[in-house]
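lol ok so funny story. i was supposed to be doing the assay writeup but got distracted and ended up predicting the structure for this chain instead. priorities right. anyway since i did it might as well share w the group, maybe its usefull for someone
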Amino acid sequence: MANHLPNARRTTGTIAYAALAAVAVATVALLPMQDYTIHILVQTASYAIAVFGLTVVLGLCGQINLAQAAFFGFGAYAVGIGTTDLHLNFWVALSIGLVIAIVMGAFLGMTTLKLGGHYLAMVTISFQQIVTLIMVNWIPVTHGPDGVGNIKRPPGFESAHAFLALCVFAMALIGYLVWLLPQTPLGRSMRAVRDNELAAGVAGINVYRTKVAAFALSALLGGIGGGLFAGGFAYVSPDQFSFAESIVFITMTLLGGVASPVGALIGTGLLIVLPESLRFLKSVPGLYLAIYGLSIILIIRYMPDGIWGFWQQRVRRWFAPAPFTNPPSELTLAPAASDAPMALEVQSLSKHFGGLKAVDDVSFSVKRGAVHALIGPNGSGKTTTLNVLSGLYVATSGRVVLAGRDVTTLPPHARTAAGMGRTFQNIRLFRSMTALENVVIGAEHAGNDVGSDHAALVERARSALAFVGLEARAQEMVTGFSYGHQRLIEIARALAGNPTLLLLDEPAAGLNSSEKLGLRDLLKRIAATGLTILIIDHDMTLVTEVADRITVLNFGRHIADGVAADVLRQPDVIAAYLGSEPDAADFA
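and the output, tada:
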């Protein structure tokens, strides 16, 4: 019964939101207003829609975009040129602008394949400057610095009141859709990419496609806002879509709260309404700008998450999700059917970094249903091997065959879909999410066995958390868990994807003795289900207790392979670890 409460809350919230939106639209349509007030409200609504786009690309996906004014300009100029020079219908002209914005936004997003951080910021700034120069200098089309005037509004919305009502309706509808986005598969993918790109990739998310989608959505919303802006003011010029305006959009996003459309609306209203409300101070030179600037500085200093983020942190406990009352189903692990006797075949695998041969012609096989350990001293190439196996590094040479399928050239998300799951030596969870949300992402990759039904994904995630003993805390933020429990959540996320092969990179690292005992028992329970495990760890007690076979690396090369007890007695292995003959307890 309690499982239906979130849906009931969402339905109630949707009805309440629709009622408020209807009241807002009716109010601006019927309430007498001066033209000046109407213009301020049209600007607020159109700007807010563009800022919603930054909520998507920056707030959800974590990608910097300093060119939102360019996309705003695409929509505005398409409406301006289309309705005046080409005599097109407003909606046709706007549609053309949106297509241009989406294509250019996706193009900009494609640069994220190779760039990130400040380099991406530089690219978006350059893009913004190029667009502004085109607007100024392509006079036959854009009318140059003089801009475009006499822009037409859509049929039925010619009056200022009616057009304002249209803008408010569009803002309310788009704001609601952006509010829902984080709980969709695409929204969760964006949040995962923002929190940890490497973990997102091995959890089955196409990181590159997610970034491109975020930029395209941001550009789309920028174009919509620009088109409405042009219709509201009936005039556009290049200076309205300069780099300075992109900074204004970013500032609005940061002031209100980058991760929520509510914050975007607050920030937009603040930066548009606050200067207007301080107009009476303009008679005193400098005072107006001083108060305005001081207000912005104080908000940034004392509300680093924005105004909405500040209040959200204080009321979040009042809106905590209701706990599950029904027990989760038992976790079933059913690796993909295959006639291949080996779950993994590594054939002459090499990974070179310039002259450094981190992995050098390594070959070994892992039988289906076995627990296989990959060990070696520090710097022997174990983690590099795992990174090549999971697709984080591209192999210099050699092949990786998973359950009979060659996956050597596949990216991380495709290897996950093929049946490979992994954890990391340094825990990589999505820290802005709950334990349940983290594990749901592991369950909903392409090729999973539970489909795309959200209820089924949640049930699989609960089952995986129950398997590691943490289902009772499913709704808690992962940042509230101990280090050892965070490791268990990462394992649960990998298990939720129903892998054919589970790669564990130093799962015992940082655990105390009791936590290591619990991990040992967990690995034995996983092995009992028939799931194949390849584990890296320096704890020889754990390795010898859970592993059927061991492969040893040293200086990137394979030096031994076989049953654990036999391998640890081989002279090459002893020399690699100790440099001399061991005592009886050396590997205890």
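The chain has three domains: 44-274, 338-419+501-507+532-588, 420-498. Residues 1-5, 584-588 have pLDDT under 50 and may be disordered.
back to the writeup now i swear
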